[in-house]
Design brief:
It contains 10 helices and 11 strands. The chain folds into 2 domains: 170 residues, 2-Layer Sandwich (Ribosomal Protein S5, domain 2); 130 residues, Alpha-Beta Plaits (2-Layer Sandwich), CATH 3.30.70. The strands form 2 sheets. Strands 1, 2, 3, 4, 5, 6 and 11 form a 7-stranded mixed sheet that branches. The longest helix has 20 residues. The protein has 309 residues and is α+β, with helices and mostly antiparallel strands. It starts with a strand and ends with a strand. It binds L-homoserine. L-homoserine binds next to α5.
């Protein structure tokens, strides 16, 4: 096999109560990547379309993740990476994770899969580290494993794939302003009170239980973030209003997608999702900020192989 073409999906991290540990994978939104084997050793990023991002492998998350894999598993071949970016950098739906995960997935596939997708998470996370200044695996995990994932630990890496209740649908509104993850992390407090921690781990445990038991009411009650959202909400235009109208339109919960500015909601069924999407649209239209809305089932598969030669 000489080359593989992939669809590398967007993802939603944190899911309100799971800062840096929870995430889920989206379906229709994502990038295309082509990875080619070459006789020249090392990693080269040969082409990026759709966005202005560095081709320098040390400056690009895909390059950094790919080099981490080759360092652990030296190969007689090199690899060329081509990316058609459709997920905007700084949008809050895992743009860097899609590229990092895609690079290691593609190279691993062309090498005959020496690693499992679980094992690839660690390499992909090295790309995330470049993008945000700190290592977190809550976006790369659902991209590599599909569905919902829980990162129990990053050292050693221990990620659990969670079940997806069949009627869950995600609604994403992306106000087209750029918010850097590094900035959205820098404004956070380094300590939390015991009271907030108790509430957060209560909600996180309950959300996981709700996913296992298809309990939509419990999922709804658990989609609460007492720790991060109060600080980041001010970075997102009309966040409180978006949340209010989403809940009124029938969302199970609504919060910041990753580090923002995208806002996500989860609903039971597509009809509710359409209503929530419309309510969100009306808020943004009044503001006059350019935006897009995505309605997506939860992608249980993760990265897809489109073709290979
Ligand atoms: N958990 C990370 C954060 C996700 O919220 O900073 C960033 O994509």
């Amino acid at each position: 096999m000489k080359s593989v073409k992939l669809f590398t999906p967007a993802s939603v991290a944190n899911v309100s109560c799971g800062f840096d540990v929870l995430g889920f994978c989206l379906d229709p939104v994502g990038d295309d990547m082509t990875i080619r084997k070459s006789d020249e050793k090392g990693i080269r990023i040969t082409k990026i379309t759709g966005q202005d991002l560095p081709l320098d492998v040390h400056q690009n998350v895909a390059g950094v993740a790919a080099m981490a894999l080759l360092e652990a598993n030296p190969s007689e071949y090199g690899f060329e990476i081509e990316i058609n970016k459709r997920i905007k950098a700084g949008s809050g739906i895992g743009s860097s994770a899609a590229s990092s995960a895609g690079a290691v997935f593609g190279i691993n596939h062309l090498l005959g899969s020496p690693y499992t997708n679980h094992e690839l998470i660690d390499f992909a996370m090295q790309g995330e580290k470049l993008a945000s200044g700190s290592a977190h695996a809550d976006n790369v995990s659902p991209v590599l494993l599909g569905g919902f994932t829980l990162v129990r630990s990053i050292a050693p890496m221990d990620v659990i794939k969670l079940p997806t209740p069949k009627e869950l649908v995600a609604v994403i509104i992306h106000p087209k302003i750029e918010l850097k993850t590094s900035h959205a992390r820098a404004i956070l407090k380094k300590t939390v009170t015991l009271k907030s921690a108790i509430q957060q781990w209560g909600n996180l445990g309950a959300l996981v239980s709700g996913l296992y038991s298809d309990n939509y009411d419990l999922i709804s009650r658990s989609l609460v973030d007492e720790i991060i959202e109060p600080y980041r909400a001010m970075l997102i235009p009309e966040f409180a209003k978006l949340k209010e109208v989403s809940m009124n339109a029938g969302a199970l919960g609504c919060g910041i997608s990753g580090s923002g500015p995208s806002v996500y909601a989860l609903t039971k069924g597509f009809e509710n999702a359409e209503n929530v999407g419309q309510a969100m649209r009306e808020v943004m239209q009044k503001l006059g900020i350019d935006f897009e809305v995505h309605i997506s089932k939860i992608n249980e598969e993760g990265i897809k192989i489109l073709s290979e030669e």
